[in-house]
Design a protein that fits this description.
Blueprint: E1 2-7, E2 10-15, E3 18-22, E4 34-36, H1 45-48, E5 53-55, H2 66-72, E6 78-81, H3 88-95, E7 101-103, E8 110-112, E9 115-122, E10 132-138, E11 143-148, H4 155-159, E12 166-170, H5 185-210, E13 214-218, E14 222-224, H6 246-256, E15 261-262, E16 269-274, E17 277-282, H7 287-295, H8 297-307, H9 309-317, H10 325-342, H11 344-350, E18 353-358, E19 361-366, E20 371-374, E21 382-386, H12 388-397, H13 403-409, E22 413-416, H14 422-428, H15 433-444, E23 452-455, E24 458-461, H16 471-474, E25 475-478, E26 481-484, E27 489-492, E28 497-498, E29 508-510, H17 511-520
Parallel strand pairs: 3-5, 5-6, 6-7, 11-12, 12-13, 13-15, 18-21
Antiparallel strand pairs: 1-2, 1-16, 2-3, 4-14, 8-9, 9-10, 10-11, 16-17, 18-19, 19-20, 21-22, 23-24, 24-29, 25-26, 26-27, 27-28
Helix pairs in contact: 7-8, 11-14
């Protein structure tokens, strides 16, 4: 088996039973904000486009690049479609002319001659744009797991496919916190470090659980080449960004898991696996060029920025004309108010008005009343300032996921009073009837009926209130606070209150209290 790195989460897998093109992206994506790091334009995209199968893990535009597909990938390619609860990705693919679709089933292996593969989707509202997935591949000579951005909960089932010899996984997150927030600089630096530490911890959790012999960090970080975002590359010019690069993570892994074998997986990296033997070569960059990319990163990024401004100008020229404020408000009212009326859990979860300043339009989304109206000077717990051309473009394109278009572009500002509110951002990625109804039902089914487990001196519900992870495997308790290692959410066990966001309480009591209650129960 041969695996070629294509940049970001992209890879080209050649097996005895055929080749698979995974998540190919050239960019720029997210309104011109994200470019693959390092530059991947020098690859032989014509060759990779002739793959037997195309696998797009999910709908994020740093994994799904329509312009690249139109240019390089034939319309008759066999497309491996993850088994998602809504058909948004399928409809996106069909609009591009890709109709040769193979409908995979969640966690069910498929066989194509010597090639066995399995697509494992995630379906929670917080998993990418309502969906993320991993790809397992085995051709008899090697087995690999391409986990990319997904954070699977049932690792035992995932790993029952076969023991992966090579493991490809995300180590750098895709998020806008805390960079866009109205915070003092020292607070931004502190929160950015906490976020980087949490990402490292989550990646190490999976690396230890998968326990593959060979590990390849991928799926980030991006390059920010827009002038106003340039300072947020990597850890940021002032330590206030969250994007850990491949070399930085490998150093972290070496410190905490010194016997683990880790490798840089960049555009042009070729990994060959054959019955346990592995070789890693580089076909696009010399060793000296790679060292310069990482060791003199800001100079490399500046050269990329200065040479690629035409791509940014072309992206900006593709945006929609700015709508006048009254037309924009009318269009958003017509679109969003029916969704708010259907979204009872969103209305209750947000619980108040949210302010949006969009160019000359100053409006609120009044979640409890399911109304959009002009801002009237009231206090709001959350507020956003968004360029009007981005909103006008999403209205033109009927983009149903603003969290993973406008927000991931980082071309906006935000502020809040108090804790993170998951429901606001989830609503912003659910701007269609199908998505609203799916997420409403998903939240409604999350009342916990799982068994309890004892962790240290506490008895808690087994399943995490956030995304249903098994807390007997992912939880750590310190000073009465439980932390789930998958997303670093925290709970105060004495009260059951979630410390990371609104809602999501946990069922908890001391082990001593649990024994007392059990002893007090009448005999059967």
């Amino acid at each position: 088996m041969r695996i070629t790195g294509l940049g970001h989460a992209g890879m080209f897998i050649e097996t005895l039973g055929g080749s698979i093109l995974c998540d190919p992206v050239l960019g720029p994506t997210f309104f011109g904000s994200w470019f693959p790091f390092p530059d991947n334009r020098g690859l032989d995209w014509e060759r990779f486009g002739k793959a037997d199968f195309l696998y797009v893990s999910h709908r994020h535009r740093d994994h799904f690049d329509p312009a690249l597909m139109e240019r390089y990938i034939p319309k008759d390619i066999k497309v491996l479609l993850p088994d998602y609860p809504t058909d948004d990705l399928e409809q996106d693919l069909r609009r591009l002319g890709y109709d040769n679709i193979i409908y995979t089933q969640a966690g069910v292996p498929l066989q194509f001659g010597d090639l066995k593969l399995m697509v494992t989707p995630l379906r929670a509202p917080s998993d990418g744009p309502i969906g993320d997935s991993s790809l397992s591949v085995d051709d008899g000579t090697a087995s690999i797991l391409n986990q990319n951005d997904s954070h699977p909960l049932d690792l035992e089932k995932l790993l029952s496919f076969s023991k992966p010899q090579a493991y490809f996984t995300q180590v750098s997150g895709a998020i806008w916190w805390p960079m866009v927030y109205d915070l003092p600089q020292d607070a931004k630096q502190n929160f950015a470090k906490l976020k980087r530490d949490a990402q490292d911890k989550r990646a190490m959790y999976y690396i230890e659980k998968v326990d593959a012999e060979h590990v390849f960090p991928m799926a980030g970080p991006p390059m920010f080449l827009r002038e106003e975002l340039f300072r947020y590359n990597g850890h940021g010019l002032e330590g206030d960004a969250i994007f850990t690069d491949q070399r930085q993570f490998l150093a972290h892994m070496k410190e905490h898991r010194p016997d683990q074998k880790g490798y840089e997986f960049l555009p042009g990296t070729v990994v060959e696996l054959n019955d346990g033997d592995l070789s890693v070569t580089q076909t696009l960059y010399t060793d000296a060029e790679i060292d310069r990319i990482f060791d003199d990163k800001w100079s490399y990024l500046a050269e990329q920025r200065d040479s690629r401004q035409a791509e940014l100008a072309a992206e900006e020229a593709s945006r929609a004309p700015v709508l006048p404020p009254d037309e924009m408000l009318a269009a958003l009212k017509e679109w969003w108010e029916p969704l708010l009326r259907r979204g009872r859990i969103f209305r209750e979860g947000v619980g108040g008005p949210v302010r949006y300043t969009i160019g000359d339009l100053d409006m609120v989304v009044d979640f409890p009343k399911a109304k959009l109206r002009e801002y009237a000077g009231e206090e709001t717990g959350y507020w956003f300032t968004i360029p009007a051309d981005l909103v006008s473009t999403n209205i033109r394109d009927r983009e149903i996921d603003w969290s993973n278009s406008i927000f991931l572009s980082m071309q906006f500002q935000a502020g809040r009073v108090g804790k993170f509110n998951e429901f606001i951002y989830t609503f912003m990625k659910c701007l269609s009837r199908d998505r609203i109804e799916y997420v409403e039902n998903w939240y409604a089914e999350q009342s916990d009926v799982s068994e309890d487990v004892q962790l240290d001196d506490w008895v808690v519900q087994r399943r995490c209130p956030h995304l249903r992870a098994d807390l007997s495997k992912t939880a750590k308790i310190e000073d009465g606070v439980l932390t789930c290692s998958l997303h670093d959410w925290k709970w105060d066990l004495a009260s059951g209150r979630c410390l990371s966001t609104h809602g999501h309480p946990i069922r908890s009591r001391t082990a001593e209290d649990a024994l007392t209650r059990e002893a007090a129960q009448p005999a059967a």
